[in-house]
């Protein structure tokens, strides 16, 4: 299995089963003790809390799963062990696997990022399998970081940036915002950045900072205000540049963005997410804008949960990224530009990612960047009064028609029906239909009849262009994304305990993880009839720690251990042991009774007597267990009986294995 396949499995629920594979095949570049040190030093709750809001429930932290869409929290984090598990999609692992899955990182990249975060110094093997690729990517990150610093310092202090500073002040971008967003100034001239950084041309060109000219490398950005673009983790990956009125000859496009590179893909990158992520997670809402200054404008008025696409229309990748952090997406631009084709996309994305799309109530002709200066209260109100996407489109349609005449009302009603018909939920359609009837003064039942025909027309096959966004235009081709109308990949079903023995086994394993001292010496592998539980207990018994057991166990057993580490056992130790011993002994009673019947048919007197004697003894021991109530400690005679049965079952298992051998 290749590293990308491992990451894919982790994101889709492969979870801790792949942890051992990751560590076994990829940790060759980093010593095992350094991997363990990084894992131990990382606060799993703090890390995962940057991607989904977590709330303490008992000994665990729970929240909405960042790997699949859901409305009720099923994602659990065990803070003590640093393990997560989703009871919905079975995604599981530790901070290393989490960061790999959520950010699409290689193993070594995840280790390096967590090491930097926690202050752990790691050693890398110069012969690591992916070292060359990592070094190339790191060279691009380093070049971009140095370019951002160069341009920022140039804007802050250099005389040739005076007009740029004046322009930014005129847009309300004062020193605090300039520093927060690390805005910069790219001086005029051919290669000032290249000469200042003195980095290899391959790294500068690979990051999109220079282009090769007839006389050497030439800076990509010249005479422009620079808006650095960062990944969610704060690494600079690209630049956006704007011409400044009155500087230079004004040639070229007003905005120029970095080309796509090995570290930058427009369709999955959002400007400002590095600064907005925490506010988005805390509020459960994200504001999507048209441009860089719009994002900064929202920050200026205290709405720090704003982001913007980077010169491309909104894509499914953007929605997938945003759905990790928020369940409500507020569009702060003209979301009606592509009409019906846009609606199909937005409704599909709402369904697929289980988010709500709303549209900010911005006054016509005002963008958020300017409104932040002119009327900050109005900008805040625009977000507070954001309408659902259908409500926004319907109100625009009703407001744009002539409702004074019967002919005008009929025309508006037809247009409104076409808008309502776009929504996939018939209950939602019917509620908005009542509003159309009120506004147009047309009988509701007549409109219902016409709505059915409008829905059929809407469902007829057609080519669907991209959803509107800041850049408009056709949506880019995206390999791997399911077409509109196709269901998302099914979520794996949680492994269910079907029998009393399996339920008792889960409870006993969970307590062996959470209360190992109390369970020490009270269980044996012979008690576990379910194969995965038996493998999990064997790994747990043989390992020095839970993490070692997870890495050593087979796939399903490893996943089960992580799942149970994120559970809250609601049963006492005595009750769990008694339940498991009772279940195992009951199964053996059934086996022995079958032996008695087989021996009777074969007329084997000695075998009949031995099996019957064992059945009678087991049943007499089991009668004692009925005295244990829920949540109680077992009487001494019951615990002693359990100890006898555990020893007897273990001995029976050894004898059976010897006979088979």
Structure write-up:
The chain has a 6-stranded mixed sheet with strand order 12-14-13-15-16-17, with helices on both faces. It has a 5-stranded antiparallel sheet with strand order 1-2-3-4-5, sandwiched between helices. A 4-stranded antiparallel sheet has the order 6-9-10-11, covered by helices on one side. It is flat, with a radius of gyration of 32 Å. Mean pLDDT is 80; it is low at 1-28, 461-466 and 471-494. The longest helix is centred in the last third of the chain and has 30 residues, at 573-602. It has 29 helices and 17 strands. It is α+β, with helices and mostly antiparallel strands. Helix 20 (426-440) packs across helix 21 and helix 27 packs antiparallel against helix 28. The protein starts with a helix and ends with a helix. The chain has 4 domains: 3-129, DNA Primase, Chain A (Alpha-Beta Complex); 132-264, DNA primase, catalytic core, N-terminal domain (DNA primase DNAg catalytic core, N-terminal domain), CATH 3.90.980.10; 267-476, 3-Layer(aba) Sandwich (Dna Topoisomerase Vi A Subunit, Chain: A, domain 2), CATH 3.40.1360.10; 500-660.
What order do the helices and strands come in, and which of them pair?
Blueprint: H1 3-12, H2 19-26, H3 32-41, H4 44-48, E1 55-57, E2 60-63, E3 75-78, E4 83-86, E5 92-93, H5 95-103, H6 107-118, H7 131-157, H8 162-170, H9 175-180, E6 184-186, H10 192-197, H11 201-206, E7 210-213, E8 216-219, E9 224-230, E10 236-243, E11 255-257, E12 270-271, H12 273-283, E13 285-289, H13 292-300, E14 306-309, H14 316-322, E15 328-331, H15 339-353, E16 356-359, H16 368-374, H17 376-384, E17 387-388, H18 389-399, H19 406-421, H20 426-440, H21 444-459, H22 500-514, H23 516-519, H24 531-542, H25 546-552, H26 555-565, H27 573-602, H28 605-623, H29 636-660
Parallel strand pairs: 13-14, 13-15, 15-16
Antiparallel strand pairs: 1-2, 2-3, 3-4, 4-5, 6-9, 7-8, 9-10, 10-11, 12-14, 16-17
Helix pairs in contact: 1-5, 3-6, 5-6, 13-16, 16-17, 18-19, 19-20, 19-21, 20-21, 22-24, 22-27, 24-25, 24-26, 25-26, 27-28, 27-29
């Amino acid at each position: 299995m290749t590293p990308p396949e491992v990451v894919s499995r982790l994101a889709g629920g492969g979870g801790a089963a792949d942890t051992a594979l990751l560590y076994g095949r990829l940790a060759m570049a980093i010593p095992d003790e350094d991997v363990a040190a990084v894992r131990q030093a990382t606060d799993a709750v703090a890390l995962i809390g940057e991607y989904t809001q977590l709330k303490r429930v008992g000994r665990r932290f729970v929240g909405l799963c960042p790997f699949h869409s859901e409305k009720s929290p099923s994602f659990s984090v065990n803070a003590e062990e640093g393990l997560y598990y989703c009871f919905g999609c079975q995604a599981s692992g530790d901070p290393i696997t989490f960061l790999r899955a959520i950010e699409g990182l290689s193993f070594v990249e995840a280790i390096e990022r967590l090491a930097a975060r926690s202050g752990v110094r790691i050693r890398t093997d110069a012969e690591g399998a992916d070292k060359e690729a990592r070094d190339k990517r790191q060279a691009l990150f380093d070049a971009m970081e140095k370019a951002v610093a160069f341009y920022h310092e140039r804007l802050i202090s250099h005389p040739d940036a005076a007009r740029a500073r004046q322009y930014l002040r005129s847009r309300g971008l004062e020193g605090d915002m300039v520093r927060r967003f690390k805005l910069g100034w790219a001086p005029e001239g051919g290669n000032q950045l290249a000469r200042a950084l003195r980095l290899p041309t391959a790294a500068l060109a690979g990051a999109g900072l220079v282009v090769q000219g007839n006389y050497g490398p030439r800076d990509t950005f010249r005479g422009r205000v620079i808006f650095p673009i960062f990944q969610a983790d704060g690494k600079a990956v690209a630049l956006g540049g704007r011409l400044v009125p009155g500087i230079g000859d004004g040639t070229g496009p007003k905005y120029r963005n970095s080309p796509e590179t090995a570290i930058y893909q427009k369709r999955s990158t959002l400007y400002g997410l590095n600064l907005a992520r925490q506010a988005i997670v805390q509020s459960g809402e994200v504001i999507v804008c048209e441009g860089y200054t719009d994002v900064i404008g929202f920050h200026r008025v205290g709405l720090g949960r704003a982001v913007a696409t980077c010169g491309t229309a909104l894509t499914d990748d953007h929605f997938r990224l945003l759905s990790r952090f928020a369940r409500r997406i507020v569009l702060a631009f003209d979301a009606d530009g592509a009409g019906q084709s846009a609606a199909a996309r937005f409704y599909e994305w709402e369904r697929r990612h289980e988010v709500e799309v709303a549209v900010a109530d911005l006054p016509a002709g005002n963008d958020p960047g300017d409104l932040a200066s002119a009327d900050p209260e109005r900008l805040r109100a625009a977000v507070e009064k954001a309408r659902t996407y259908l409500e926004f489109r319907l109100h625009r349609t009703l407001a744009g028609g002539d409702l004074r005449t019967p002919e005008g009302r009929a025309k508006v009603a037809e247009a409104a029906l076409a808008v309502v018909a776009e929504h996939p939920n018939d209950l939602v359609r019917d509620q908005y239909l009542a509003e159309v009837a009120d506004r147009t003064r047309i009988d509701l039942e007549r409109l219902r009849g016409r709505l059915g025909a409008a829905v059929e027309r809407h469902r007829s096959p057609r080519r669907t262009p991209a959803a509107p966004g800041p850049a408009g235009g056709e949506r880019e081709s995206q390999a791997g994304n399911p077409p509109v109308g196709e269901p998302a990949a099914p979520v794996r079903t949680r492994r269910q305990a079907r029998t009393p023995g399996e339920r008792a086994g889960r409870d006993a394993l969970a307590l062996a993880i959470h209360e190992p001292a109390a369970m020490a010496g009270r269980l044996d592998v012979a008690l576990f009839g379910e194969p995965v539980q038996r493998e999990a207990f064997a790994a747990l018994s043989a390992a020095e720690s839970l993490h070692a057991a997870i890495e050593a166990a087979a796939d399903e057993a490893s996943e089960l251990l992580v799942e149970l580490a994120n559970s809250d056992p609601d049963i006492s130790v005595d009750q769990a042991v008694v339940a498991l011993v009772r279940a195992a002994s009951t199964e053996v009673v059934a086996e022995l009774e079958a032996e008695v019947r087989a021996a009777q048919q074969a007329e084997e007197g000695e075998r009949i007597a031995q099996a019957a004697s064992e059945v009678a003894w087991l049943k007499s021991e089991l009668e004692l267990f009925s005295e244990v109530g829920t949540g109680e400690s077992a009487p001494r005679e019951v615990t002693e009986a359990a100890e006898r049965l555990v020893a007897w079952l273990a001995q029976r298992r050894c004898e059976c294995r010897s006979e088979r051998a």
